[in-house]
Amino acid sequence: MNSILGNWAEKFRPHPDGTQLPPHHGHCLGCGPDNPHGHHLVVQRRGEEVHAVHRFSERHMGAPGIAHGGAVATVLDDLFGFLLYLTGTPAVTRQLEVRYDAPVILGTSYELAARVVRDDGRKLFVEAEMSEVGGTTVATASALFLKVDIAHFDRGAPPAPVDLD
Ligand SMILES: CCCCCCCCCCCC(=O)SCCNC(=O)CCNC(=O)[C@H](O)C(C)(C)COP(=O)(O)OP(=O)(O)OC[C@H]1O[C@@H](n2cnc3c(N)ncnc32)[C@H](O)[C@@H]1OP(=O)(O)O
């Protein structure tokens, strides 16, 4: 098993309500603390939802001062990946749809929440939104995740040291 996956079984143990959930792995683009280009998303379980507060930086710029739509999609997709700790099964994104309701401003904090809306065999239907703190929704997302065996992730090489400018 690729060492980057670490102790994956431990990650899929039940996580109590209110606790911070573990990153998928250290180099994950969404949540890995060791990825210098990543979003470093920090996610908590709240009941049957996962929540985060996130701020995009200059590294994620699309239009001047505004987050790139792909960066917003990355964060929403990765947030969905934390629901897997609640369902207890590894899964991957099969389809992702994002609705951009308003510009996401760099340096501004946004609240994110995601939940499973239907768990149907291998299929997990999920939805999320990103909102100004205590205010207007700026993006919503829905996705289909398909449950996979952990061996699905055991294909790529572990990260080698690279020159990341
Ligand atoms: C330690 C940490 C680790 C865990 C780490 C977790 C990290 C999470 C990070 C965030 C998420 C990601 O970035 S994930 C990375 C991005 N995603 C990927 O790389 C996935 C690439 N795609 C694939 O590998 C494959 O397509 C799979 C595994 C997703 C599916 O392949 P498959 O197993 O052959 O399944 P397939 O036959 O296509 O579909 C299965 C069933 O779903 C239905 N289905 C398929 N598409 C749709 C659709 N759009 N809408 C409705 N239904 C659909 C099919 O009809 C079928 O239904 P029926 O006939 O059975 O009824």
TrEMBL record:
It is a peripheral membrane protein. Coiled coil: none annotated. It is an enzyme of class 3 (hydrolase). InterPro entries: HotDog_dom_sf (IPR029069), THEM4/THEM5_acyl-CoA_thioest (IPR052365), Thioestr_dom (IPR006683). It catalyses: (5Z,8Z,11Z,14Z)-eicosatetraenoyl-CoA + H2O = (5Z,8Z,11Z,14Z)-eicosatetraenoate + CoA + H(+); tetradecanoyl-CoA + H2O = tetradecanoate + CoA + H(+); dodecanoyl-CoA + H2O = dodecanoate + CoA + H(+); (9Z)-octadecenoyl-CoA + H2O = (9Z)-octadecenoate + CoA + H(+). Its EC number is 3.1.2.2. CDD domains: PaaI_thioesterase (cd03443). It is found in: Cell projection, Ruffle membrane; Cytoplasm; Membrane. Keywords: Apoptosis, Cell membrane, Cell projection, Cytoplasm, Fatty acid metabolism, Hydrolase, Lipid metabolism, Membrane, Transit peptide. SUPFAM superfamilies: Thioesterase/thiol ester dehydrase-isomerase. PANTHER family: ACYL-COENZYME A THIOESTERASE THEM4. Belongs to the THEM4/THEM5 thioesterase family. This is Acyl-coenzyme A thioesterase THEM4. It comes from Nocardioides aquiterrae.
